């Protein structure tokens, strides 16, 4: 149920009362998309968000029933850290969710960022090419309007699907990110934004600034889930 009229260019918006409500809505949206994809095509290809916002939803979905054997799990970006570093998005997703459900290990595709940004991007490119279009892409948004590891003011090689990233303003500096083209090639794009720290970037997006998150959202059937505290004044 929407509690506030708030709109963003290139996306539909649902404003929910708090972070728990947002997490519950994310879980429900993912499970519905999975049921639809498995019924229609026999598999569900999801691309996960990194960062802290989705973790509440990841922990909740770990306790739900799904046809996990049909799931194929990809990541929208990864930090260039050792394979078992808890700061890696893939490690956080496994700890919060994927280690608790029977998705076949060969169907979880971590970005091999321990090889370095260029080698990892080259290795992940064909995997993404073979997965597109994703059934659902889940993204967060940073306080500067970045999404995945696509940061404002950075050149984006638009023909590639997976990009090496260096000097990222959000540590660690070296990362790997799916490109706007890869992230937008999906049947559903769900962007999850909570907390008052995101309000300023949401205001810039609302006012038409060409932020990375806005560019990705504009290219896909995008839905933004917010909690009330993230709303700009
Ligand atoms: C990362 C994420 C990044 C994240 C946003 C929001 O590697 O950090 O891919 O894009 O989604 O920065 O992060 P929070 O959810 O922690 O605010």
Summary?
This protein has 233 residues and is an alpha/beta fold. The chain has helices spanning 19-41, 55-61, 89-96, 117-131, 180-184, 199-206, 212-218, and strands spanning 12-16, 44-48, 71-75, 77-79, 136-139, 162-165, 175-178, 189-193, 222-227.
The end-to-end distance, rounded to whole angstroms, is 20 Å
| Assigned CATH architecture | 3-Layer(aba) Sandwich
Supply the number of structural domains: 1
Q: Bound small molecules, which ones?
A: 6-phosphogluconic acid
Secondary-structure element string: EHEHEEHHEEEHEHHE
Do you know the CATH topology? Answer: Rossmann fold
SS field, number of helical segments: 7
Spatial strand arrangement across the major sheet: 1-9-8-5-2-3
- Please identify the structural class as seen in this structure: alpha/beta
Main CATH class: Alpha Beta
Radius of gyration: 16 Å
Largest sheet at a glance?
Answer: 6 strands, parallel
Oligomer: single chain
Strand percentage lies at: 15-25%
Number of strands: 9
Mean pLDDT: 96
Task: Pick out the low-confidence regions.
Answer: none
Identify the overall geometry: globular
Helix amount, in percent? 25-40%
Write structural notes for this entry.
- The chain has seven helices and nine strands.
- It has helices at residues 19-41, 55-61, 89-96, 117-131, 180-184, 199-206, 212-218, and strands spanning 12-16, 44-48, 71-75, 77-79, 136-139, 162-165, 175-178, 189-193, 222-227.
- It has a single domain (12-192, 210-230), classed as 3-Layer(aba) Sandwich (Rossmann fold), CATH 3.40.50.
- The model has no long low-confidence stretch (mean pLDDT 96).
- Helix content is 31%, strand content 18%.
- By secondary structure, it is of the alpha/beta class.
- Residues 49-53, 77, 79, 89, 140-142, 146-149, 170 line the site of 6-phosphogluconic acid (6PG).
């Amino acid at each position: 149920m929407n509690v506030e009229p708030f709109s963003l260019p290139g996306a539909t918006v649902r404003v929910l009362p708090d972070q728990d409500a947002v997490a519950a809505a994310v879980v429900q949206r993912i499970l519905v998309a999975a049921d639809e994809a498995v019924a229609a095509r026999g598999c569900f290809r999801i691309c996960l968000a990194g960062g802290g916002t989705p973790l509440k939803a990841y922990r909740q979905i770990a306790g739900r029933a799904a046809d996990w054997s049909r799931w194929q799990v990809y990541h929208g970006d990864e930090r260039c850290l050792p394979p078992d570093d808890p700061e890696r998005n893939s490690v956080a997703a496994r700890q919060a969710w994927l280690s608790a459900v029977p998705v076949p290990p060969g169907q979880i595709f971590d970005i091999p960022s321990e090889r370095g940004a260029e080698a990892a991007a080259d290795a992940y490119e064909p995997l993404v090419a073979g997965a597109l279009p994703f059934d659902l892409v889940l993204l967060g948004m940073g306080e500067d309007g970045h999404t995945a590891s696509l940061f404002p003011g950075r050149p984006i090689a638009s023909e590639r699907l997976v990009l090496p990233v260096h000097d990222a303003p959000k540590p660690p500096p070296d990362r790997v990110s799916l490109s706007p083209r890869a992230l937008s090639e999906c049947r559903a794009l769900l962007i999850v934004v909570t907390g008052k720290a995101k309000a300023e970037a949401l205001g810039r997006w609302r006012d038409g600034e060409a932020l990375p998150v806005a560019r990705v959202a504009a290219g896909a059937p995008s839905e933004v889930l917010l909690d009330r505290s993230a709303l700009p004044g």
